Amino acid sequence: MINKIKALSKDYYDDVVFYRRHFHAMPELSMQEHKTGAYIAARLKEMGIDFEEGVAETGVVARIEGRNPGSRMVALRADMDALPILEENRVEYKSTVPGVMHACGHDVHMASLLGTARILHSLRDEWEGTVKLIFQPSEENYPGGASLMIQEGVIDNPRPAAMFGQHVTPGLPVGKVGVRGGRYMASTDEIYITVKGKGGHAATPHLNVDPIVIASHVVLALQQIVSRNATPYIPTVLSFGKIRGDGATNVIPDEVKLEGTFRTFDEEWRERAHLRIRELAVFVAQGMGGDCEVFIDKGYPFLVNNEKLADDFRTYAGEFMGKENVEELDLSMTGEDFAYYSQRAPACFYRLGIRNIEKGFNSNQHTSTFDVDESALETGMGLMAWVALRELQQKT
């Protein structure tokens, strides 16, 4: 079966590259993926695969049934949304939408899954069970398209025995994949703090309550949440990326706004940290004569890969690519809404290498020059097809 899948991956490669370049040239932001969803639906219809459109507004869900379809189900997921970034690449498939770009690789994910769908459909008389294909909107924005898909029952009736998500990474060279069992990606919360003071002339600081000075102390004090409150055994990040005080060289503003992120791998500690952030920020502000409002937008949970499924994935990937091309991943402080699926079903989120320095594919994700070595598409579609079929063979 491996040889058949690899042969079909080669046969379908040019078409899948075409799909990817179409997606890349026509990106859409979170919850705006209407044309993207329609394109996916059109391709599935051409393949003769049953699907449902408009799931969680713009998502598409398809089913491919082999022999004895009720025996076991495996789900495969690809995300659809692009980012608000102006592309700087000079390529023929450059984004045609100003200020919007597939800078995270979701175009690769969709194209690969379409290729996987075509492979599985072509071989449907040679395997048992059902494969569900989930094309999910809005991975980049809260509340996350995964949570919306779950609310619409996408992974119920029946619940999949296993679920896989594939995501590109420039951290691995093309031709390799990576996985990590257990805790893998962090929870992601957004922090919004408004420090209130009393503005006035910068030359009369004794008449003001300076929110810029207070905000500076708040940021420094909150760094102790990680250094002196968090256990060193639980990775934790608290960073502020935005501070805004609309004053001038000689004007002290009335308030300053701070925006940051909190990320960790333990739900109990996560809740205690939120409380400590609120308490400490207010205490510091009030102690300096001002006040403080804190809003924490609780985001995605941390992502846990099922240990057995991750082990099985290593085996499957080693069979398909060679053990030397399957690497162990480090913990990641980035977040992913695939975490919601991992709370509902045995799940495995793995990485597909796309870096090729010699060809110039080395930019980080979420940058204006991000691009991929498209040979990864052949690996991506074939590996996911093989993983799905191998998992369907499991009995427990």
Model description:
With 396 residues, the chain is α/β, with parallel strands linked by helices. The chain has ten helices and 16 strands. The strands form four sheets. Strands 1-2-4-3-5-16-6-15 form an eight-stranded mixed β-sheet, with helices on both faces. A four-stranded antiparallel β-sheet has the order 10-12-8-13. The longest helix is centred in the first third of the chain and has 24 residues, at 2-25.
Coarse morphology? elongated
Percent range for β-strand residues: 25-35%
State the share of residues found in helices, binned by percent.
25-40%
Spatial separation of the terminal alpha carbons: 22 Å
Assigned CATH class of the largest domain: Alpha Beta
Instruction: Give the tally of β-strands.
Output: 16
Question: CATH superfamily assignment of the largest domain?
Answer: Zn peptidases
What's the helix count? 10
**How do the helices and strands follow one another from N- to C-terminus?**
HHEEEHEHEEEEEHHEEEHEEHEHEH
Query: Which regions are unreliable across 5 or more consecutive residues at pLDDT < 50?
Result: none
The rounded Rg comes to: 24 Å
Q: What structural category do the secondary elements indicate? A: alpha/beta
The largest sheet, given as strand count, sense and whether it forms a barrel, is: 8 strands, mixed
Going across the biggest sheet, name each strand in turn. 1-2-4-3-5-16-6-15
